[in-house]
Amino acid sequence: MISAENLKYELSGRLHELASVTGKTHLSVRWEPQARIVRVGACLEEYNWDSREAVLKRLLAFEADHFDELALEFDIIPLHAVRDESFAEV
Predict the structure, then answer these.
(1) For position 90, what pLDDT does the model report?
(2) Alpha helix ranges (H) inside 1-90
(3) pLDDT digits over 59-81, tens only?
(4) What is the pTM of this model?
(5) Strand 37-44 vs strand 71-78: parallel, antiparallel, or unpaired?
């Protein structure tokens, strides 16, 4: 059975292999069972084109591996932006 915890565990494992490229990664996962959509937010400490592309390829591979089970929506953003108060709109 699909759950947010299972999805986060699998995605964390896939992204952990990229730690040398991405640095610290914060991952948030939300599972919407009715619509069968996984919403993923990946925050990267080392945010550049190469790290973003590496994470993008891993997320697309995850989606391809589960194409008959779910759809994937994701954002890849720099981790420092989340720590900065100007990131949130008031």
Answers:
(1) 43
(2) 4-16, 19-22, 49-65, 79-83
(3) 999 999 999 999 999 999 998 87
(4) 0.86
(5) parallel
Q: What's the CA gap between 11 and 85, in Å, rounded?
A: 27
Name residues of the chain where pLDDT drops below 70: 82-90
- Is residue 14 helix, strand or coil? helix
Evaluate whether 40 touches 73 at the Cβ level (below 8 Å). Answer: yes
How far is Cα 59 from Cα 53, in angstroms, rounded to an integer?
10
Report strand pairing: 37-44 vs 25-32: antiparallel
CA distances (Å), 26 to each of 36, 62, 79, 87, in order?
A: 23, 17, 7, 16
> Which amino acid is it at 81?
A
> From the centroid of its chain, how far is CA 73?
9
